[in-house]
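Researcher: I'd like a structural prediction for the single chain below. Treat it as a standalone chain; there are no partners to consider.
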Amino acid sequence: MKKRTVYAWGVAILPFVLLMVVTPRLPQPQMYHDFADKRKFFGIPNTLNVVSNFPFLVIGVIGLVLCYYNNYRSKFRLRGELWGWVCFFIGAVAAGVGSSYYHLDPNDAGLVWDRLPMAIMLTPLMAILIIERIDERKGTVSIIPLLLAGIISVFYWRFVDDLRPYGLVQSVLSVAIPLMAILLPPMYTHSTYWLWASGFYLLARVGEAMDKVIYILTLHIVSGHTLKHLCAAMGTVILTLMLAKRTIETDRRSLLKKWQVFREKVKENGSKGESCKHSNTSVQPEEDRIDLQLYSLSDKISQFHD
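Model: Treating it as a single chain, here is the predicted structure.
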């Protein structure tokens, strides 16, 4: 088991090593700080980009209450899982504060306090899925290394001005979390909420990339970056709802298996419908033949009477 763990970490580290050796340094573009919506309301610079982070703060506090409130704490069957969710919600609270601070005066120094909370918030999610769906001990042990990977990638960017490690960590999380949610059998119900949350995180990335385009298309009502914050916060809301609503899963099949079974049932029902249709069409000519015979017989009787 120890050898397998070492191999797993080796496979995880190998892409990072290859990335650092093969690709050139990727500095932070300064145009990133030039956001579309610079409007100022109530004396707050970049108002909508600042206040759109407030939902992170609210949901983070609610999530921490769920983690430690007696009626909901029983929903966490595994101790490591509770630690992972606590880190997630602490990261959400920090994101609400740190991202607001950054958007008051966007620059590299402030961007650290935007990215660092997001790293603390997102990296434990992979550990939570490992705890729930693979192995409790391995998942619990992975919380700290994953947190460190996210934190180090942020500070490496800040002090070396190289985004490659940060980009790799974010890309791995974006792909691995929905894949694990689909392929691995869950311990709890409402597993599809993971996919909804991942979908909103993807929309957040789209909003970030299309900041100015969305601002123009909405006639300067809202920018893509503001929508990025709201979509990412919505993903946090969905995961919080999942925690509040979920129960122990009695049918421990992966989402992929359930989808395959559903597709087979749809095909089976479709084939039954086709067979019924064919049987009806095959019976119809026989009924028509009988009707013709009766009509011919009645015609002959009428001719006889005449």
